[in-house]
Amino acid sequence: MACCSSHSGDSRHSEAPPPGAAWFCPMCPGVFSEHPGACPKCGMELEPLPAAHSSNTERDPLLPRLVLSLVLGIPLMALAMAHMLPGGTTAAWTQSPPARWLQFLLATPVVFFCGWPFFERAARSISSGHLNMFTLVSIGIGAAWAFSTAALLIPSAFPEAHPPLYFEAAAGITALVLLGQVLESRARRRTGGAIKALMQLAPPVARRLTGDSEEEIPIDQVRTGDLLRVRPGDSIPVDGQVKEGHSAVDESLLSGESLPVEKSPARRSPQALAI
Ligand SMILES: [Zn+2]
Fold first, then answer.
1. Distant-in-sequence, close-in-space partners of 202: CB < 8 Å, separation ≥ 6
2. How many CB atoms lie within 10 A of CB 140?
3. Per-residue pLDDT tens digits for 37-88
4. Do 241 and 5 touch, CB atoms closer than 8 A?
5. Is the N or the C terminus of the chain less surrounded, counting Cβ atoms within 10 Å?
6. What pairs with residue 47 in β-bridges?
7. Centre of ligand 1 from the C-alpha of residue 58, in Å
8. Which helix (H) or strand (E) holds 229?
9. Alpha carbon of 36 to those of 32, 52, 61, 74, 216: distances in Å?
10. CA of 24 to the centre of ligand 1 (A)
């Protein structure tokens, strides 16, 4: 048997979410929102707060744009790179006006539909003065598309007979940044789910000692200074100090240490560990 004095009443978060906030930026402390969207500072996708998090399987809003960018971008890349392959007839056709216009038709939806969230975030970053990765991405793909479109429409303005096109670069960068965003968002959701599962290991109730009596109370009613009883086989409900008793605690979930750790008075007990 061990008794713990809890200190669960304090909060270590200096930036508490305002009332009604359901989303936050994992990169920028203090950025909260009532709606999903992009962070006004760094442009990253906002994450749901743990309390408002309904499901780990919700769809990524950028996924349909990624799929379309790949469907259009892969043939565009093949078309733009075909002149590097050996074979005269194919190479000649890929430099012809119809092939150059086909590159324009494939790249434009990728840049301006699939990449539209990047332009929105870039515009917000410029208006707020917080330049970020999306400012650079938008300038890069916008410049590549604008240069290539000018080379297509007014080739006489360029010194070369066939000015180079960079449509495949604009579409390729858009698709790769979208892929990175989708992978990062999935990884963060999985990490959040693992932390949530770890927190759910904490028991929902605690046994509070008041004088000689013992009562079972919900975990959120535990206050700083309460004496709690933890029986053998129980999980430890909150962080605290051992006041009385002696036992060994399985801390492997937190430390990875497979051997039970001895606990005795004046030693702190981390939350959610089996005793
Ligand atoms: Zn941010």
1. 219, 235, 237, 238, 271, 272
2. 17
3. 888 888 888 888 765 555 555 678 899 999 999 999 999 999 988 877 776 5
4. yes
5. N
6. 24
7. 21
8. strand 227-230
9. 10, 11, 10, 31, 39
10. 8
